[in-house]
């Protein structure tokens, strides 16, 4: 959209600014509702204005229903178009195995000639959006379903439709390049690479072959860290966003463990089990490596970060194994994933994100996968407020009542000893660092370290790793002329871990750190 001329902008701004004083009567005299013009303003104005005009709970996306092919059409009252209906039609225009679909949306009875309705459409496999300004039938194309699972889901449960606040238009436009990240194809991979280059300054230089290292497991030891970076599909998109908001150049982690017979194992939180759940698992190296080489469709890039010999000497294997096995089979730590990143009220959100956008995403997620992630986040938020069983809107109201804000609520540090309804929680990196903590690597200050506050970047920045390149295994970075301080063992592009192996642990480390792109600079004592 072209920017409106400045005087018009000023006029609109004034109108919008005055509207909260007396919104209804003023609106009655004008040919349009002042809030209708919000989408015309640049995002930097529209979003703060909307925030000022509305209570946080009113900014949440509203679930209007699911459009399906079998149940007739879905009807609801939009914010602009008072009569809105939607239905789904399956087609096979591309001649692919599962075909695609067209979402029909018919809108009419607009309450003013300047208003528009913005919608987000979601399945568990994609999220996308569109906006409508004209009274007529519109269509939205799903060219091809991602696969059988999405096809079956939409057949039985439809596409979920959420009505957004009109002032979110700019925010959604600014997030435009986020939506393709989740596609599981070459285009999705290119989107992820493009996004990380543009927003983080990542380089993605191609390495010479071999892209898989012929490793010898005799050279891998207990406590060696695995930094993984996935760049395709659902996990790829998810990791790209996690990297962008946290400043980490890897999106997943695991740890090597040797047992008393010398057999090598991998401890991983976020392992896909056969039921498609993400769990904590301790599994034989061969099984893990075989999965990463042949079955992981996210094009994983993997680096082995060997522990420093002094750390290895300090490492209590008995205690590490005890902790790892006590967590084996537990669910992945969604509870604490979000909170490791958000430490500050405004210095952790790269624009256009803010606490309200996070709340919006959680609302959509809650609706789509209720048994899964967002419920779990709600539990974490309840813990922070000392409440029980409140859902997200109720949590927002409760926070406001207490004179606090959702942004502030998100900054309250996670405590490593919090126990959730499904047990103790550990995200991928929290699990690895809990093992380090159990093994004594944070001694003597381990009681003042909350590992759930560490991002992946915080983990690989710890000065725990090998710093003498002549002690790295012989096969390390085999065939690559560029010498890395760690061993990349899989991947077409060279991995980079800025800040690797530089920070000594200190009490209350990482509990108040900003993280803003593109530099993600970090005060030394946060
Ligand atoms: C779409 O067409 C292709 C080729 O004609 C066919 O193999 C596939 O089964 C069709 N898919 C559906 C969902 O009808
Ligand atoms: C269709 O209607 C039935 C019965 O009203 C309901 O149980 C089902 O969830 C609906 N399906 C969709 C996709 O809305
Ligand atoms: C891998 O290395 C081992 C010796 O370390 C060697 O015997 C084997 O042939 C190598 N495999 C490949 C595919 O190069
Ligand atoms: C290692 O951990 C085990 C189990 O927690 C403990 O019994 C043992 O004393 C520890 N060893 C050392 C050297 O600290
Ligand atoms: C690095 O390791 C090699 C081999 O163990 C050793 O000879 C050398 O002194 C070490 N360098 C430093 C700076 O510690
Ligand atoms: C590696 O770290 C140790 C202390 O942890 C230090 O004494 C040594 O000089 C470092 N070596 C190199 C090559 O930087």
Automatic annotation (TrEMBL):
Endpoints of the signal sequence: 1-27
Record keyword Signal present: yes
Keywords (A to Z) from UniProt: Signal
Name this protein carries in UniProt: Uncharacterized protein LOC115750014
Upper lineage: Eukaryota, Viridiplantae, Streptophyta, Embryophyta, Tracheophyta
């Amino acid at each position: 959209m072209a920017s409106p001329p400045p005087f018009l902008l000023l006029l609109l701004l004034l109108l919008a600014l005055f509207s909260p004083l007396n919104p209804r009567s003023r609106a009655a005299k004008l040919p349009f509702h002042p809030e209708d013009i919000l989408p015309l303003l640049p995002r930097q104005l529209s979003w703060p204005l909307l925030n000022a005009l509305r209570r946080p709970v009113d900014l949440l996306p509203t679930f209007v229903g699911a459009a399906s092919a079998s149940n007739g059409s879905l009807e609801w009252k939009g914010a602009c178009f008072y009569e809105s209906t939607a239905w789904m039609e399956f087609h096979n225009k591309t001649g692919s195995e599962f075909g695609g679909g067209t979402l029909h949306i018919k809108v009419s009875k607009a309450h003013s000639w300047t208003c528009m309705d913005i919608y987000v459409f979601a399945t568990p496999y994609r999220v996308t959006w569109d906006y409508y300004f004209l009274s007529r039938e519109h269509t939205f194309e799903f060219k091809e379903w991602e696969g059988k699972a999405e096809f079956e889901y939409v057949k039985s449960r439809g596409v979920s439709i959420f009505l957004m606040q009109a002032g979110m238009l700019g925010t959604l436009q600014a997030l435009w390049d986020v939506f393709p990240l989740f596609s599981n194809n070459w285009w999705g991979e290119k989107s992820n690479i493009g996004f990380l280059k543009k927003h983080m300054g990542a380089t993605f230089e191609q390495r010479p072959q071999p892209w898989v290292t012929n490793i010898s497991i005799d050279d891998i030891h207990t406590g060696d860290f695995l930094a993984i970076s996935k760049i395709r599909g659902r996990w790829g998109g998810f990791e790209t966003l996690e990297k962008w908001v946290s400043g980490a150049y890897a999106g997943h982690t695991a740890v090597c463990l040797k047992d008393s017979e010398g057999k090598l194992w991998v401890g991983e939180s976020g392992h896909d089990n056969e039921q498609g759940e993400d769990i904590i698992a301790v599994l034989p190296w061969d099984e893990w490596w075989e999965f990463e080489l042949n079955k992981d469709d996210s094009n994983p890039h993997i680096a082995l970060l060997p522990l420093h010999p002094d750390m290895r000497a300090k490492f209590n294997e008995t205690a590490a194994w005890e902790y790892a096995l006590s967590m084996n089979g537990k669910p992945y730590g969604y509870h604490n994933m979000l909170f490791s990143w958000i430490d500050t009220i405004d210095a952790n959100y790269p624009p256009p994100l803010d606490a309200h956008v996070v709340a919006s995403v959680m609302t959509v997620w809650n609706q789509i996968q209720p048994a899964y992630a967002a419920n779990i986040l709600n539990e974490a938020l309840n813990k922070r407020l000392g409440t029980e069983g409140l859902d997200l809107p109720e949590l927002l109201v409760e926070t406001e009542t207490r004179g606090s804000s959702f942004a502030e609520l998100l900054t309250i540090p996670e405590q490593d000893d919090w126990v959730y309804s499904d047990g103790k929680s550990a995200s991928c990196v929290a699990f690895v660092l809990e093992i380090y903590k159990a093994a004594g690597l944070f001694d003597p200050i381990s009681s003042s370290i909350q590992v759930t506050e560490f991002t992946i970047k915080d983990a690989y920045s710890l000065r725990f790793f090998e710093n003498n390149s002549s002690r790295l295994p012989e096969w390390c970075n085999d065939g690559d002329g560029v010498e890395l301080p760690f061993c990349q063992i899989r991947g077409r592009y060279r991995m980079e871990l800025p800040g690797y192996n530089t920070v000594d642990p200190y009490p209350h480390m990482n509990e108040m750190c900003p993280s803003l792109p593109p530099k993600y600079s970090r005060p030394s004592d946060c």
